[in-house]
């Protein structure tokens, strides 16, 4: 089932929380709504579900307007972070619930329900827990049961709001891989809310980055990561260092240090560098032009994580990441020169240049 979201607006009291949201979700996609707390993700999800009414705009399912339909009539499945299972019912009965309350004409027979719940339990790999009560399950098991319960009625749209938010990192990772696989097997359409960028990039076909009730960017995980559409997306997705300087007559100037750049204009600018985009050298050269001092060295698997302090220019501590073999000679307290062939330079809201800043210093 495809989902069309057109011109959705929503205010709570005088506060506008969604501004004219437009989004097309093709059938079978898993779409991650990603943004900081309060950006409007849950509100948008609830509007898609029919649990919340928008002030304006339209929601379509497969091109049919469902804006006026109640949540029940939209036939979507939900999994929420704290979507409590029914405490007094066994795992089996929880999963069977949606089928057993169907109107008599649509309700499967008891044998069919048993068969179906059995299949779902196998799918979530929890057949051995069918007779347990929710209080006897771990958090991860409960969420898998919640997912099985949502899928029992074969929704064509599944909405998930931070479904794994309360779980520890490893369980979370396992469950999202597993959700991805399930999604690929069953081909429903999912919208998934998260504020965890790694989670969104890991499972989504498309990521929708939201900020303050607006969509900042829509794209594949690769696109939003490699080509962030704005400073917000660049800063929100992953760690990034920001070096403040000034464009001045064909140079980017940081303190008394200068990098020659083929740009005109005189204004404040920021150079954004991801930790892995930083290159370091013991001596200044064409590429390495900014003096720094190493304040910390932390090996992390195949990479070494470094903290670098500006030496003689105004700025904050920078984070760099080097492959192990390039960092063997680097020690705390060492003076080095920083440069990069990557990074992005912004002045105001506009990006001056995307990469290849490495010109002569
Ligand atoms: N029922 C409500 N009444 C008043 N304000 C609300 C209501 N629901 C949400 N809000 C406000 O709307 C804004 C968006 O909230 P929403 O829950 O959609 O954000 P979110 O991106 O999902 O955040 P989080 O990641 O913290 O859940 C917030 O400022 C919130 O305080």
UniProtKB/TrEMBL annotation:
All copies of the ABC transporter domain together span: 3-237
Q: Does the keyword Signal apply?
A: no
Write out the entry's keywords from A to Z: ATP-binding, Cell membrane, Membrane, Nucleotide-binding, Sulfate transport, Translocase, Transport
Q: Which PROSITE patterns match?
A: ABC_TRANSPORTER_1, ABC_TRANSPORTER_2
Q: Name one GO molecular function term.
A: ATP binding
Q: Which InterPro entries match?
A: AAA+_ATPase, ABC_SmlMolc_Importer, ABC_transporter-like_ATP-bd, ABC_transporter-like_CS, CysA_C, Mo/tungstate-bd_C_term_dom, P-loop_NTPase, Sulph_transpt1
Q: Out of the domains of life, which is the source?
A: Bacteria
Could you give one GO CC term from the UniProt record? Answer: ATP-binding cassette (ABC) transporter complex
Q: Which NCBIfam families match?
A: 3a0106s01, PRK10851.1
This protein is called: Sulfate/thiosulfate ABC transporter ATP-binding protein CysA
């Amino acid at each position: 089932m495809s989902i069309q979201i057109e011109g959705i607006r929503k205010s709570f009291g005088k506060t506008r929380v969604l501004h004219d949201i437009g989004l097309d979700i093709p059938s079978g996609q898993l779409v991650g709504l990603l943004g900081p707390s309060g950006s409007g993700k849950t509100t948008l999800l609830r509007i898609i579900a029919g649990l919340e009414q928008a002030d304006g705009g339209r929601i379509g399912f497969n091109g049919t307007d469902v804006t006026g339909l109640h949540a029940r009539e939209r036939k979507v499945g939900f999994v929420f972070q704290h979507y409590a299972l029914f405490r007094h019912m066994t795992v089996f009965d929880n999963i069977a619930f949606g089928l057993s309350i169907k109107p008599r004409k649509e309700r499967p027979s008891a044998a069919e329900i048993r068969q179906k719940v059995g299949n779902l339990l196998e799918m979530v790999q929890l057949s051995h827990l069918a007779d347990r009560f929710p209080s006897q399950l771990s958090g991860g098991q409960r969420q898998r049961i919640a997912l099985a319960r949502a899928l029992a009625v074969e929704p064509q749209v599944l909405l998930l709001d931070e479904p794994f938010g309360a779980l520890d990192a490893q369980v979370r990772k396992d469950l999202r891989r597993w959700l991805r696989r399930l999604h690929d097997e069953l081909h429903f359409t999912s919208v998934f809310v998260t504020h965890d960028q790694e989670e969104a990039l890991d499972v989504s076909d498309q990521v929708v980055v939201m900020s303050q009730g607006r969509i900042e960017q829509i794209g594949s995980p690769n696109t939003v990561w490699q080509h962030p559409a704005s400073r917000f997306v660049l800063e929100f997705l992953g760690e990034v260092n920001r070096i403040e300087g000034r464009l001045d007559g064909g140079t980017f100037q940081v303190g008394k240090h200068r990098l020659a750049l083929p740009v005109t204009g005189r204004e404040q600018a920021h150079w954004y560098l991801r930790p892995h985009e930083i290159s370091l050298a013991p001596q200044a050269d064409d590429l390495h032009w900014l003096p720094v001092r190493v304040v910390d060295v932390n090996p992390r698997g195949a990479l070494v994580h470094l903290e670098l302090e500006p030496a003689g220019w105004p700025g904050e501590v920078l984070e760099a990441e080097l492959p192990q073999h390039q960092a063997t000679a680097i020690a705390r307290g060492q003076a080095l020169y920083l440069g990069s062939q990557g990074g992005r330079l912004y002045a105001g809201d506009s990006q001056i240049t995307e990469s290849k800043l490495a010109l002569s210093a």
